[in-house]
Design a protein that fits this description.
2 copies of one chain form a homodimer.
Chain A: E1 7-11, H1 14-26, E2 37-41, E3 47-49, E4 52-54, H2 56-65, H3 83-87, H4 110-125, H5 129-139, E5 145-148, E6 155-161, E7 167-171, H6 172-178, E8 185-191, H7 198-206, E9 209-212, H8 222-226, H9 230-236, E10 241-244, E11 247-248, E12 251-252, H10 257-263, H11 270-277, E13 283-287, H12 294-299, E14 303-307, H13 314-327
Parallel strand pairs in A: 1-2, 1-9, 2-5, 9-10, 10-13, 13-14
Antiparallel strand pairs in A: 3-4, 6-7, 6-8, 11-12
Helix pairs in contact in A: 1-2, 1-13, 4-5
């Protein structure tokens, strides 16, 4: 990679946020500046709660890159309080059906609420999610571009299998947060008529290279790929697309990606990930613990890069970013 | 007043809340129970901020009757924190026009937010404001009935006079909170196509007596009177309606009622109040400091009751309630 380069990073939440943190730390070593990085972020998890427009993946990336994420929880802000949520307890049983109308299982910290207030107020004024995301990014002094995959609402819906075997479709947050992704999944559906946002399209087509961050391929990268044209667009420049496996040693580092891969008929391994990404990416970055799968990955038509991918420290994240950049044409 | 009686109280915010507190304390002395009291509450000040449905008068009454109002501020909850509002500071200048999209001048405490979350969530589900108000009332164990004047949005709009003499119409909260009611008012308008709610109608027509609480006659009682049929309904049973003057010695105890009366062509005195209420109420309760106006009030066709109306302690509020009840037929 030479000259003035740019990178589009296709992102979910926590894993993508850590990778972006490493990428920003790595730019000094490359012919790259932070403002030439564009994060194209999943909004399939977005939801409306208590009237508030919530974009979990955008916020996780913002808070992580601002150094404001809570390191213990891995989500939400550090130095947080929960007074608003605690005060909802009083209202939990007064709805006629006895259930909570304003549930507390989606925990919104008091400081975090300001982000949702701002987003909600601006969207109500008619601003696009792209505009609001850029404003929130600037409010937090994030040095990279951040764009939502779409300005339209696309909702990831999860059909779960109940203990009696019956199927029921629920929202992603219902599955992920309320049920702590502890139930089997029968299928995933992306509900809504959403288009890839213009800046997301510009980034994916115009960037020198595209990185698919180590996020859940089905429910974080999946919603972005479900938008019309995205897979075709990436397939057409597949040689410039590199993906990082979120599966290490057959397990997801966080979240239900491994179980979900099995439940939805994929192999819960770097090979399964390679099969999902080989149509749109030419290279897969895998962890050293998965080195023995290199040949199988190359059989799917992907080049394989082996390095440490478990971003337990900023140093590992930075090295992963450098190794990923080095794999780019 | 004998037998099983009931009272409807036409209410604004703080003054009404204190009167209701006194009325509840007084019921033991009368053939009355708390659950035979219905507060019919102004919702003309209601607004949507950051996506949240806010009903200031309903909340002031709820928090006051729950013993949870902050005694220093006179609004909002005691033991409150302001973390969400403080965190909005970061977003104050990132909107393209440089102004705050989610302003902080309407201060929402962290604990208070739960009430707005619940109300917003229930209204979004399709519940009426009447239903939600009753649920919030029960959540706070308020022993009286509380009903909004309407399930429809009616917005009190204030045309203010700018320093250069030009007129500009703004929302009531813009005038009352943001500008701290510190600008002259040219006119008041109630915007919206709202109907008196059914339980409000039942209370005003069916209660043994109606009390008009000591609230701003123009912007607290005014919105209720602006609803089709309300003045006719009260006029038809005028002998059972008693009003309490919010003006004492020519001044409002709280808020801009005195200046607003002058600006809108009324006399800023108990006599001005009497002229506003004489078509719909047969009795006006005034403070002892205004005793010299008794004859002028009776000249408007109203009977005059003179007592202490400045509810500086619960004891005064209770005695005012007893004196008001004694004036009822």
């Amino acid at each position: 990679m030479t000259g003035r380069s740019s990178i589009a990073v296709v992102c979910g939440g926590v894993g993508a946020a850590r990778f972006l943190r490493g990428l920003i730390d790595a730019v000094d070593d490359r012919s790259l500046t932070a403002d030439s990085i564009t994060a194209v972020v999943n909004t399939g998890d977005d939801c409306t709660l208590h009237g508030l427009s919530i974009s979990p993946d955008l916020d996780t990336i913002t808070y992580t890159l601002a150094g404001a994420i809570d390191p213990e929880r891995g989500w939400g802000l550090v130095d947080e309080t929960w007074r608003a949520m605690e005060s909802l307890e009083r209202f939990e049983t007064v709805r006629p059906d006895g259930s909570a109308a304003a549930p507390r299982w989606f925990n919104l910290g008091d400081r975090d609420l300001a982000t949702h207030f701002y987003r909600t107020a601006r969207l109500a004024e008619g601003a696009t999610l792209t505009e609001v995301t850029d404003e929130i990014r600037r409010a937090w002094s994030i040095p990279i571009d951040m764009v939502p995959m779409s300005n339209d609402r696309l909702s990831t819906m999860v059909t779960i299998i109940e203990p009696d075997g019956s199927h029921r479709e629920i929202s992603f947050q219902d599955y992920f947060v309320r049920l702590r992704h502890g139930v089997p999944v029968a299928s995933i559906r992306f509900d809504g008529d959403a288009e890839l946002s213009d800046p997301a399209r510009r980034a994916l087509t115009g960037a020198t290279s595209v990185v698919i961050a180590p996020s859940n391929p089905l429910v974080s990268i999946g919603p972005i790929r479900s938008l019309a044209g995205v897979d075709d667009l990436l397939a057409a420049r597949r040689d410039r697309v590199v993906a990082i496996s979120p599966i290490v040693g057959g397990a997801a580092l966080k979240g239900p990606a491994d179980r979900m891969l099995v439940e939805l008929g994929h192999e819960p391994s770097v090979v399964g990930v390679a099969r999902l990404y080989s149509p749109i990416a030419s290279t897969l970055v895998i962890d050293t613990v998965d080195a023995q799968h290199a040949a199988e990955i190359e059989a799917t038509g992907m080049r394989c890069v082996i390095t440490d991918t478990v971003m337990s420290t900023p140093q590992v994240a930075r090295q992963l970013a450098l190794d990923t950049l080095a794999a780019l044409p």
